[in-house]
TrEMBL record:
Name this protein carries in UniProt: Transcription elongation factor GreA
Domain Transcription elongation factor GreA/GreB C-terminal: 83-156
Molecular-function GO terms, alphabetical: DNA binding; RNA polymerase binding; translation elongation factor activity
Residues annotated as domain Transcription elongation factor GreA/GreB N-terminal: 5-74
Keyword hit for Protein biosynthesis: yes
Keywords: DNA-binding, Elongation factor, Protein biosynthesis, Transcription, Transcription regulation
Function as written in the Swiss-Prot or TrEMBL entry: Necessary for efficient RNA polymerase transcription elongation past template-encoded arresting sites. The arresting sites in DNA have the property of trapping a certain fraction of elongating RNA polymerases that pass through, resulting in locked ternary complexes. Cleavage of the nascent transcript by cleavage factors such as GreA or GreB allows the resumption of elongation from the new 3'terminus. GreA releases sequences of 2 to 3 nucleotides.
Pfam families: GreA_GreB, GreA_GreB_N
Family the UniProt entry places it in: Belongs to the GreA/GreB family.
One GO biological process term: regulation of DNA-templated transcription elongation
Superkingdom as given in the UniProt entry: Bacteria
């Protein structure tokens, strides 16, 4: 059985998406299918086929979310003692040792990852390089553009 690590915020977002799909989107699609069915011949009814296709995708996503919720492992990093070590759920400030450019990332589960918002998946190469290291450690990260060395500046439990 696959377990899905999630932050408290990630689990809440997944629950909200599930509620929206089951309480808003699913009933609307059923209504759209009923309306399209009234238009006549189903063989050449584009609205009907589009609504049925959309319904299939929504139902697949609902099943996926239910499976993830059933197998989620919620990790609340705020309840874990701060040791300076990078673990799932921590927010990590790192500095490029060549340019001294600093960036901050929150290490989250797959479903929560959003690089533009500074949230990186625990399975990403950068997160894998950081996990288990401590403030002051230097890590080498392999990137398509070559290896980059980062120093861990600060680890926060927020």
């Amino acid at each position: 059985m696959i377990k899905y690590p999630m932050t408290v915020q990630g689990a809440k977002a997944l629950e909200e998406e599930h509620a929206h799909l089951t309480k808003v989107v699913r009933p609307k699609l059923s209504q759209d299918i009923g309306t399209a069915r009234e238009l006549g011949d189903l063989k050449e009814n584009a609205e009907y086929h589009a609504a049925r296709e959309q319904q299939g995708m929504v139902e697949a996503r609902i099943r996926d979310i239910e499976g993830r919720i059933q197998n989620q492992v919620i990790i609340d990093v705020t309840t874990i003692a701060h040791t300076g070590k990078v673990i799932f759920g921590t927010t990590v400030e790192i500095a490029n040792t060549d340019t001294d450019e600093r960036v901050t990332y929150h290490i989250v589960g797959e479903d929560e990852a959003d690089f533009k918002k500074g949230k990186i998946s625990v399975g990403s190469p950068l997160a894998r390089a950081l996990i288990g290291k401590e403030e002051g450690d230097v890590v080498m990260v392999k990137t398509p553009g070559g290896d980059i060395e980062y120093e861990i500046v600060e680890v926060r439990h927020i």
